[in-house]
Predict the structure of Riboflavin synthase.
Amino acid sequence: MIRIGVADTTFARYDMGRSVIDELQKTDTGIVVERYTVPGIKDLPVACLKLFRERGCDIVVACGMPGPKPVDKISAQIASTGLMQVQLMTGKHIIEVFVHEDEARDSKELAWLSDRRAREHALNAYHLVRDPAYLTRFAGQGLRQGFEDVGPVEGSVGGYRH
Ligand SMILES: Cc1nc2c(=O)[nH]c(=O)nc-2n(C[C@H](O)[C@H](O)[C@H](O)CO)c1C
């Protein structure tokens, strides 16, 4: 039984956790989802560690929203370093879904981007656990989560448009 953790924050201005869970449940009703919401991105590393150790998750999707200020960007850097540490400690993936508030032109696009990135990475997490070889077919295809894929460089060999 695949157990996928979803860690998210109250700081974020969009409910990415809900998008992740909805996408996972649409994909495979057999997945067990464990959700844990904390105040902000710097609380995500320990939230993920608890999802691994206390709730037995195989993989965790960590959703956060760095604000636009320099101090927010620094906080995002610190959070990412913490998430990397937890991955190396546990030997398990944390798929980091960070949407920076200033990536989007306006609130409407911020909502759309948050939902899309959360859903696309939810599927990445699912595939990584279900079949670690699944993503190889997309290697080098310039895939992006949220905004449009940028595609492979011109003239690259093979390639698979999903
Ligand atoms: C400066 C700052 N920026 C952000 C941010 O951009 N995004 C976010 O989710 N949380 C931020 N926080 C709060 C910290 O992540 C954390 O929640 C608090 O320091 C409490 O541990 C802080 C303190």
In short: The longest strand covers residues 3-9.
